[in-house]
Every structure is written in structure tokens, then in C-alpha cells.
Write a structure and sequence with these properties.
17 helices; 411 residues; 78% helix
Length: 411
């Protein structure tokens, strides 16, 4: 019995050949299940093809340029506040709006192609007043919030503008997001949380604030106003023109910020002890802000307002890196980790484009102003008119027949 089993297993000292079905299954398994190294290489190739594109690289670079410009405004404002005790956010914004007015509003006034300044004011003056008011007050409320609450609260609550921006884009711009976009936003917010944790560990909380509740409300209000301004900017830039947006914001912003400046900051301006260093800081702030306003519509036109706001989350990190040398901030490895996490989320968001929902069309004819009842009445009137026409024609025929009969009788 044992010899029979051995004979069935061995044949001429070698293992017996497997059945044909088993051989085919083994070959199929070998083809379907490639080595792990091959799977990893294929995955790496796909990721490289999806992420290492010119669009993502360009979006990444443009977003970081905006972050550096915002960093410039933050550093100059910090210098004015710490070194010279100057807190005049409205004056700084007023200078920026004046530059926008001089460059873009005057260009818009003399533009020959498309609507000029007067035509735009006649058609859409109230819309741009609301836009200018939102933009001016967004800048003012965020800066004002630092007087009442902590840096940590401002950094955290300022992220409230991103979901507001996505919601406004959904309803106004008809943007439609995928799951990867929501995951990317969550990753970016996780990076912001890491940055805030690094601030707490480094002791950069700047006290508890004079009135935390007021400061938090100001941050939420400013973030919402920024979202409104950014969505409006995206709509105008993509559907109208960049020149129209900057020209009208420069005009309305100059008027509103000038009035508010005269009301709330005239005493602070009178107390400034001017010298060339202070003037240079004001000029540097104005140039950075002017560059930000001039460059952001270009980036939004290429990408979207949401991706821009995700990209500029790194602005606080750049400010912190400069603060290590300028203001003596303490370094933490968590700053680098938060930067990497934010960039990963930003790349994830840009890797998959959003789509725009189409406006639903209807096959029903548009109703006119007459309404159904009036339309029936109109049909009835037309019927009566046609009846009268037939009666008149019949009377004419009868009269012609009578004339013919009379002539025949006379003959």
C-alpha cells in the first residue's frame, strides 16, 4: 500500500506532474498577483502622474507667493505695534485702497473696450458698495480682534471662513465638491491645529485678552466677510474682468475706509511721532497689501477662492519663521510638521478639480404676461373677430349678387 502511494507521488524520482486544471490556476494566480515591489512601483507612478503636474506646481507656487505677501503685512504691522506702539489698521488699509484707486480705478475710467467706470456705476453701484463694505470691514475686524482675544483664538476661528466659503461657492458659484476635497480641507485644518499647539507649547498666547467673547465674535465676523469678498471676487474675475473688480474695490474701499478712518482713528494718527523708519514700515505694508490685492485675482482665476484660502494658511507659519529672528520667538518642530500637513492637504485639494453644476433647463415654454384666463379671452376675441370678418364678407357677396340680378333684369 505504501509503495502504491510512493508511486503515485514520485515518477522516475521526480514529483508527479500536477493536473492541467491546477497548472492553469497556478499560472492565473501568478499573473493576477504580481510581486509587492511591482505594486508599489505602479502606485508610485500613478501618484507621480497625478500630483507632479504643472497645474499643481503652479498652484502651489502661486499660493505661497500670496502667503509671503500676507506674511509681509503681518511682520510690518507687528513691527509698528511692538517697536512704535502704532495700531492703525484702518490707516494702513486706506493707503492700500488709495493705491488701488490710483492704478486700477483710473485705468477703468479711461477703458475703451467694455463698460467703463460710469457705466458700471450706473448698472451695479449698490452691489459694489456691499462688496467694498465687506472687504473693508473684514480687514478691520480681524485686526481689531487681536486687541480682545488671543492669537490662538484668532488662528483657530479664522479657519471658520473656509467652510463658509465652500458653502457660498456651492450655492452662488454652483461648485460641486468630491470626497477628496472635504478630506483635504480636514487635513489642512489639522495642520492649523498643529500650528496652534506649537504656539501654546512655545508660550505665544499673549495673555487671555481683555474680552475674549468680543474678540471671538469679531474673528468669526471677519472670516465670514472675507468669504463673501472672496466668492464675489471669484465670480467677477471669472465672468467679468480683474480690472473691474480691482477698480471698483479701489474706489469704494477708498471712500469707506477714509470715512471710517476719520471717525475711529484720527486721534491715533495725530499721536504718531513720524520718522523715516515708521514711514518705511507703512510703505512696506502698503506695497505688500497692494501686491496681494493685485495678484490674488490672477491666482483665483487659475484655481478657485477655496484653494487660495487653503494655500494661504501657511502665511502664519512664514510669519512665525520670520519672528524667530526678528521678535525672538521660540522654535518648535511642530511648526515644520504643521507646514508639511497643510501642504499635503493643499496638494490633495488641488489634485482633483471641482466641477460646476449646470443650470437646470426646462422644456416647458415660458409663460407670457397674459396668463391662462386672459389667453382664453384673447382666443375668444379672435374667434369673434374672425366671425365678424366672415359675416362682412358674406354681406359683400350678397350685395354683389343683388347688383348682378338688377343688371340682368334691366337688360
Amino acid at each position: 500500500m505504501e509503495s502504491v502511494r510512493s508511486a503515485s507521488v514520485l515518477e522516475n524520482g521526480h514529483p508527479a506532474a500536477p493536473p492541467a486544471a491546477a497548472a492553469a490556476a497556478a499560472a492565473a494566480a501568478a499573473e493576477v498577483s504580481p510581486p509587492c515591489s511591482s505594486c508599489a512601483s505602479n502606485l508610485w507612478i500613478r501618484l507621480r502622474e497625478k500630483l507632479c503636474t504643472w497645474h499643481i506646481v503652479k498652484t502651489l507656487l502661486l499660493g505661497q507667493i500670496l502667503s509671503l505677501l500676507i506674511c509681509g503685512t503681518a511682520v510690518t504691522s507687528q513691527f509698528l505695534a511692538d517697536k512704535y506702539s502704532i495700531n492703525t489698521p484702518m490707516l494702513q488699509s486706506f493707503i492700500n485702497y488709495c493705491l488701488l484707486f490710483l492704478v486700477y480705478t483710473t485705468t477703468l475710467a479711461f477703458r475703451k473696450d467694455g463698460d467703463g467706470l460710469l457705466q458700471i456705476l450706473k448698472k451695479k453701484w449698490w452691489k459694489y458698495i456691499l462688496l467694498g463694505l465687506a472687504d473693508v470691514e473684514a480687514n478691520y475686524t480681524i485686526v481689531k480682534a487681536y486687541q480682545y482675544t488671543t492669537i490662538t483664538s484668532v488662528q483657530l476661528l479664522d479657519c471658520f471662513g473656509i467652510p463658509v466659503l465652500m458653502a457660498l461657492s456651492w450655492f452662488i458659484l454652483r461648485a460641486r465638491y468630491k470626497l477628496i476635497h472635504f478630506i483635504a480641507v480636514a487635513v489642512c485644518l489639522l495642520g492649523v491645529g498643529t500650528m496652534v499647539g506649537a504656539d501654546i507649547l512655545a508660550g505665544r498666547q499673549d495673555g487671555e485678552g481683555s474680552d475674549v467673547m468680543v474678540g471671538d465674535v469679531l474673528v468669526l465676523l471677519g472670516a465670514s466677510l472675507y468669504a463673501i469678498s472672496n466668492v464675489s471676487e471669484e465670480y467677477i474675475v471669472k465672468n467679468l474682468s480683474r480690472m473691474e473688480f480691482l477698480g471698483m474695490v479701489g474706489l469704494i474701499g477708498t471712500v469707506i475706509s477714509g470715512l471710517q478712518l476719520a471717525i475711529v482713528e484720527h486721534r491715533d494718527i495725530a499721536n504718531i511721532q513720524w520718522n523715516w523708519k515708521i514711514a518705511l514700515l507703512f510703505v512696506a505694508f502698503a506695497l505688500c497689501m497692494f501686491g496681494l490685492y493685485s495678484f490674488m485675482p490672477i491666482v483665483i482665476r487659475v484655481t478657485s477662492a477655496t484653494s487660495v484660502n487653503l494655500g494661504i494658511l501657511t502665511a502664519d507659519l512664514y510669519s512665525l519663521f520670520f519672528g524667530l529672528f526678528l521678535f525672538g520667538y521660540k522654535f518648535s518642530v511642530l511648526y515644520l510638521l504643521s507646514f508639511v500637513v497643510i501642504m499635503i492637504g493643499f496638494i490633495m485639494y488641488c489634485s482633483t478639480p471641482t466641477r460646476t453644476a449646470e443650470v437646470p433647463s426646462t422644456t416647458l415654454p415660458m409663460a407670457d404676461s397674459t396668463g391662462f384666463d386672459n389667453l382664453a379671452l384673447k382666443i375668444e376675441e379672435n374667434h369673434l373677430e374672425s366671425t365678424d370678418t366672415l359675416t362682412t364678407q358674406s354681406n359683400k357677396d350678397d350685395s354683389q349678387a343683388e347688383d348682378t340680378t338688377t343688371k340682368l333684369t334691366a337688360l
